[in-house]
Design a protein that fits this description.
By secondary structure, the protein is an alpha+beta fold. It has 10 helices and 21 strands.
Length: 471
């Protein structure tokens, strides 16, 4: 398999921030019409709108829109000049005079905004926070998590005890203190990025590396991105040569590759849940054209056994995952639900179902290969697949980070990412931190010394063994 397939697969989940952040912004901003000053608001988008669970306020005027993020410490401007871009396929619907709903086919839940009759007092021009003052920035940092983070208890973080650290924060030690707190979460969707100061820290990276190195030793230990790239490339070359005979198909974006193992088992590797089109408006359309082609090949092969590999898939969009899963079910079924933290409670849950798509759905025996790199939207795919009676999971537990990344900006311009949403499977079980994984007898590490020395893939070997038993 070509090493170019590694385009969008990076260890640092933080590199997804800008894409996820800009995508949310596209949802927020649409062209609007003027509003006369009336005692009761007219049916216009002009004005101030609050998404309480996200901590976002948008100010919509005739000529531009402004995005703010708020917390109990104050308000900061995220972007002060945004104009709607309908070419991205995003709609912002005015439900009534006081409610806006942001919708996209790529995200699993709507974004709800309510009209503010007056501008938030924290967001008045003379109250806006734009400063490098370390104590002000620490106040915002601590309160952003305190107001919106959803997993303090799950991740064993006693957040209130760290509020007093503001008194110790100086310009010299600000990032030392903040980074130490970031690492407490061990959450791949918690991070901080300050490009101007060369700061790019992901909370989940140390624990991810520990898991990847658990069956490696000596020169094979992963200490850097270069080390990972080397093992990744070698593994893909092994899969391509030893299992597929270097004969496989791939989509144009190299996000999906498929072929046959020994002419009796199909193999599909899904490397990412985003990037199938250069235009997000066409993402699902392009994806489904690829899926039609892939499923036609699968149907023509007449094969009834399949290995579906998502071990190197670090996520993307939830609805890309749902669309892929739709090719492996023959009837509609509920697969997951999600809700966001809202104060001391949560928003109303959104339930998602998978409905069969395409002319052919594969419902033969399926092995889904997972690993600690399987994260975010790729884990959503496991929620869609894990309860099907013909699916067996082989490999290792997924990463355990399901929430969309909520991004806020500190007064000094640094980006903060955090987990704000709780995902549950169809039975209401939450897999945050633990991930979705195989039964004990089907547990295989992603990387091991023996695999690299013997140029084999123990995960695929076990999958083949299990599938052959059902022949």
């Amino acid at each position: 398999m070509n090493s170019n397939s590694h385009n969008n697969i990076k260890i640092e989940v933080i590199k997804n921030f800008k894409r996820c952040f800009l995508f949310l912004l596209m949802v927020f901003f649409m062209a609007c019409q003027s509003d006369d000053d009336q005692p009761q608001p007219e049916a216009t988008k002009n004005g101030f709108w609050l998404a309480a669970d996200k901590g976002y306020i948008i100010e919509i005027n005739d000529n531009k829109s402004v995005l703010y993020n708020i917390n109990k410490a104050g308000c900061a401007v995220v972007e002060d000049d945004f104009v709607a871009e309908e070419s991205f396929g995003i709609s912002l619907d005015l439900i009534n005079a006081n409610e806006l709903i942001g919708r996209s086919e790529l995200i699993a839940s709507d974004i709800k905004f309510t009209r503010l009759l007056n501008q938030n007092e924290f967001c008045l021009p003379d109250q806006l926070s734009k400063t490098d003052d370390p104590k002000v920035n620490f106040d915002h940092f601590w309160n952003i998590f305190n107001d919106y983070y959803a997993f303090f208890e799950t991740r064993n973080v006693n957040w209130p005890q760290y509020e007093s650290l503001r008194e110790q924060v100086t310009s010299e030690n600000f990032y030392d203190v903040v980074i130490e707190l970031i690492f407490l979460f061990k959450d791949g969707h918690v991070a901080i990025e300050d490009e101007a100061n060369g700061i790019e820290i992901n909370s989940g990276l140390p624990s991810l590396l520990e898991r990847l190195n658990s069956s490696l030793s000596g020169d094979l230990i992963i200490d850097s991105e270069e080390d990972y790239d080397r093992l990744y490339t070698q593994r893909l070359e092994t899969i391509g040569a030893a299992y597929l005979g270097n004969k496989f198909e791939a989509d144009e974006s190299e996000n999906i590759a498929w072929g046959l193992i020994n002419d009796n088992i199909a193999y599909i590797n899904v490397f990412g849940m985003a990037g199938y089109s250069t235009n997000e408006k066409n993402e699902l359309e392009t994806l489904n054209i690829v899926l039609d082609r892939m499923m036609n090949d699968l149907e023509d092969s007449g094969i009834s056994k399949l290995i579906l590999d998502i071990r190197f898939n670090e996520g993307g969009y939830d609805m890309v995952s749902v669309n892929i899963a739709s090719r492996f079910v023959d009837q509609e079924q509920a697969v997951f639900s999600k809700k966001a933290r809202l104060g001391d409670s949560f928003t109303e849950s959104t339930s998602i179902s998978v409905t069969p798509k395409g002319d052919f759905q594969f419902t033969g025996d399926i092995i889904v290969l997972t690993s600690p790199l399987t994260a975010s939207a790729a884990e959503i795919f496991t929620l869609c697949m894990k309860d099907l009676p013909y699916v067996t999971i082989v490999g290792d537990n997924t990463n355990g980070v399901f929430s969309d990344i909520l991004t806020h900006t500190l007064p000094n311009g640094a980006l903060i990412g955090l987990s704000n949403e709780v995902y549950s499977d169809a039975n209401g079980k939450v897999f945050e931190t633990i991930g979705v994984g195989p039964s004990e007898e089907n547990r295989v590490p992603l990387f091991s010394n023996d695999d690299f020395i013997e140029e084999k893939d123990s995960g695929i070997d076990l999958a083949i063994e299990i599938l052959n038993k059902t022949l």
